[in-house]
Amino acid sequence: MKKHSVLLKEELCEGCTNCVKNCPTKAIRVHNGKAMIRDELCIDCAECIRICAYHAKHSQTAEIADVSSYKYPIALVPPSFYGQFKGLNPARVRVALYELGFKEVIDVSLAAEALSRKTSEFLASNPGIYISSSCPVVVRLIKILYPELTGHLIPFKAPTDAMGEKARKDAIAKGVAPEDIGVFLLTPCPGKNTNIFDPVGIENSPIDKTIAVTQAYQAVLAALEKTQDVAEEDLPVPYLGLGWGQSGGEVQLLHEQVQDYSLSVSGIHRVRALLNELSRNNIKGVRYFELSACEFGCVGGVFNVVNPFQARSDLRRLRAKGKAMIEQNEGYDFDLPGKFEPLQIGRLDGDLERAMEKLTQLEEEIAVLPGLDCAACGAPDCKTLAEDIVTGVASRTDCIFLLRKQMGDLAETLSALLYELPPVMKKEKTDGKVG
Amino acid sequence: MQEQILIQSKIEKGDFTRGGEVSSSLKDILRKLGVPSDTSRRVTIVTYELEMNIIIHSLGGEITVLISSEQIKVIAEDQGPGIPDVEQAFQPGYSTADDFVRGMGFGAGMGLNNVKHFSDQLTVETGQGKKSKFIASVYF
């Protein structure tokens, strides 16, 4: 079964180990000169896509052409999408999306606003520390590397999922046949694409397909040329919800009392640093954490066309137009059917005693390795190579320094052996004289 | 399983730059061993607080973490100067940390309180002018 959306184009990979060293979950190893991804560890943060100079790491989504394969296609537009059009009126962008064949174009910002209200209420009546579960990459990171913090993930669906469910339900209520409905998310990141086949917190994804912003961008620009401007009253824009498109926007919509005890952190490496502190109980006075895997939040998603600085600035200006949230007949179901469950990944052995033995072996291997973390072995650092050796997927000779030392030792043995030649041959070397 | 050492590390007085290193490595080890996440969290917090306690208040010391089938035991030993009033030291909010330490966000007087809160059993040997020894256990 497919577990993640980030893939490798083997023919482009040079085996340079840049992605290996930058992967927050140490999910990549270079094998046979190619940077292979370990399925169970990949959280689709797309750091490898960002760092690869050869564009060997990539991710695939559906295209605008796929919209026509459904009789009733619905577009879900995330807040960050509006950061791609130089501050153009969001209603205008929506008209262009209708032009591309969507029967409905729905702002995820509406669900974001509703979720903000729900989060404020939840925090007012539930003591304790909570982490936003809206970024699926953060949820996966916590499940894998910080299993002890899964209980702190707020038990709500992400706005995209809640909006998708509502959109589908509303369409069916209108008399549309379920099989005709195709829910498309215009995604800024591979992480949201993974939700389709591996959703977080829910059983089945309400979203049928995602279309990467890169895939949709030019079609939208062309459709903008063909369509007319629209009066804002006709298509109200949930401006405040648009703030969710960048880091800090979620906290900004919480009740003031909650805001004072909230913190927004973005960028996977900084999120990791924060979670490290949180796991040793070293952050005081914060009740709610808005965490985004991408720097600057969703506008920093790897599928976006416009750079995150520009998008952030444009989105901020759009948000400033908002006066109040759009009060709607809620109709969202944000409650998760169950809890977020931690994943047990990275165990040396299922049995504690045997795991302890392997831990001792691991320490021995670490002591033997040079500790230079050069990654020439294909693992990100010496400690990880040691782990791979102990779990049987790598060997000491994968380390070029150990290999070199072994060859040196071997050469020494060989040269020593030269002087151990049989007497008949020694005679030749001494030029006929017996010494 | 017999009691075995998971980690043993010397800790220097005032070495804030390395503060938290022992508990970070320990957390990683516990994950590799498949220790349940709740147990791991408690052991990590207890170790971190004891580690910081040595850095902030003592003349230096050592942390040893042991594992057996029943429990994980964190032992923190230091070179003094000892705690004159143990009961007071465990009061939430009580702190003898100086302004420099507080300026870095430490010394809020919750450290030892947290050790007690997150461990299942705790023994303390100390006294004015003596070396201190904490033994905190977290049961599986």
Low-confidence stretches of chain A: none
Give the low-confidence spans of chain B: none
Largest interface, per-chain counts? A-B, 25 and 26 residues
Overall pLDDT level of chain A:
92
Class by alpha and beta content of chain B: alpha+beta
Computed CA radius of gyration of chain A, to the nearest angstrom = 27 Å
Main traits of this protein?
heterodimer, A: 435 residues, alpha/beta, Alpha-Beta Plaits, 3-methyladenine DNA Glycosylase II, Chain A, domain 3, 3 domains, 4-stranded parallel beta sheet, 3-stranded parallel beta sheet, 39% helix, 11% strand, elongated, B: 140 residues, alpha+beta, Heat Shock Protein 90, 5 helices, 25% strand, globular
Protein model, in words:
The complex is a heterodimer of chains A (435) and B (140). The termini of chain A are far apart. In chain A, 39% of the residues lie in helices and 11% in strands. The longest helix of chain A has 19 residues, at 400-418. With 435 residues, chain A is α/β, with parallel strands linked by helices. In chain A, helix 7 links the parallel strand 8 and strand 9. The mean pLDDT of chain A is 92. Chain A has helices at residues 18-22, 47-51, 90-99, 108-125, 136-145, 159-173, 190-197, 213-226, 249-252, 256-259, 268-279, 308-319, 352-368, 382-390, 400-418, 423-429; strands at residues 6-8, 28-31, 34-37, 57-59, 72-77, 104-107, 130-131, 181-187, 209-212, 262-266, 288-292. Chain A has 3 domains: 6-59, Alpha-Beta Plaits, CATH 3.30.70; 64-319, no CATH class; 352-418, Orthogonal Bundle (3-methyladenine DNA Glycosylase II, Chain A, domain 3), CATH 1.10.15. Chain B has 140 residues and is an alpha+beta fold. Chain B has a single domain (4-139), classed as Histidine kinase-like ATPase, C-terminal domain (Heat Shock Protein 90). Helix content of chain B is 36%, strand content 25%. In chain B, strand 2 (61-67) and strand 3 (71-78) form a beta hairpin. The two termini of chain B are 13 Å apart. Classes of the chains: A alpha/beta (435), B alpha+beta (140). Chains A and B meet through helix 13 of A and helix 1 and helix 2 of B.
